[in-house]
Write a structure and sequence with these properties.
Helix content is 37%, strand content 17%. By secondary structure, it is an alpha/beta fold. The protein has one domain: Zn peptidases (Aminopeptidase), CATH 3.40.630. α2 packs across α9. One of its GO terms (biological process) is proteolysis.
């Protein structure tokens, strides 16, 4: 199942099998429900031997059409749990929380109806234009640059901050976790490793730390197949877009290292990376996540 694009229910099935097979390593939690009532699932990976481990939180699939993102999250889970012996140090040192598919409704709609769908499937004030851009719905500079008040736009912000059950699920889950040291949100496409701020030109006070670590991660990726990423703040590289999850995690949830990773593109539209390329992207990205894990694990001993 890992070298193809799975449906929301296949993803759920895989997660359920995983925790059943490896209950000592993985637990599954429903952290909320989508607009259409699909469960939003989070997997916690930990071997419970060490108390108060640093936490790394990862989500994928906030944008419906970015199919490679959930595939990367699933491969990561597979490697960490099914190949535990190989990656044991990381599971022992870090408590991982993975939300492989944050926007299941939009994802299914992009599978069945409109391959280029980005938003969720909420009703809006315009009956012809459903959907909110979940990555504009977080409560930091809500409605700022790079956002739209028009429900027919791709970047429609919604009726208010956290108006959507999907963003509320992530918010509540993140605030409940203690000790989150690093946050990764997977998107596509473009090969960018981005740090805050996304709301405007200004940089966080500790941007050099974020930049340095991102460049190490970039090297880990390029060491596998030679794929290169650009590193910088979201605004510097892609222009301002306020209300994103990474800005919110850093400013409101207090996560020092918060990154948006724009995975490689392919196909005719960039978002439709051919399935035969999935293994390349998932493998090289895994190396970066591992490096980030080791970095956070080593920090606690300083």
């Amino acid at each position: 199942t890992l070298d193809k694009y799975n449906s929301a229910s296949q993803i759920q099935e895989y997660l359920e099998q995983l925790v059943k097979k490896f209950p000592h390593l993985a637990t599954l939690e429903t952290i909320g429900y989508s607009v259409e009532g699909r469960p939003i699932l989070a997997v916690k990976i930990s071997n419970y031997t060490v108390p108060d481990k640093p936490v790394i939180l990862i989500d994928a699939g906030i944008h419906a059409r970015e199919w490679i993102a959930p595939a990367v999250a699933l491969y990561f889970l597979h490697e960490m749990v099914e190949n535990y012996e190989k990656n044991k140090n990381l599971t022992d040192a870090i408590e991982w929380h993975i939300i492989p598919l944050l926007n299941p409704d939009g994802y299914e709609f992009s599978r069945k109806e409109d391959r280029m769908w980005r938003k969720n499937r909420a009703n809006t004030s315009d009956p012809l234009c459903p959907g909110v851009d979940l990555n504009r719905n977080f409560d930091l500079h809500f409605g700022g640059s790079g956002t739209s008040l028009d429900p027919c736009d791709e970047t429609f912000i919604g009726s208010g901050p956290f108006s959507e059950p999907e963003t509320r699920a992530l918010r509540d889950y993140a605030l409940k976790l203690r000790n989150v040291k690093l946050y990764l949100t997977f998107h596509s496409y473009g090969q960018y490793f981005l740090y805050p701020w996304g709301f405007g030109e200004v940089l966080p006070g500790d941007w050099k730390d974020l930049d340095r670590l991102a460049r190490y991660a970039e090297k880990a990726i390029s060491s596998v197949y030679g794929t290169h990423y650009q590193v910088g703040s979201s605004t510097q590289l892609l222009g301002a877009a306020a209300g994103g999850s990474d800005d919110w995690m850093k400013a409101r949830a207090g996560v020092k290292y918060a990154y948006t990773v724009e995975l490689p593109g392919g196909g005719s539209k960039g978002f439709d990376l051919p399935p035969h390329q999935i293994p390349y992207v998932t493998r090289e990205t895994f190396e970066a996540i591992k490096l980030l894990g080791y970095f956070i694990a080593n920090q606690r001993h300083r």
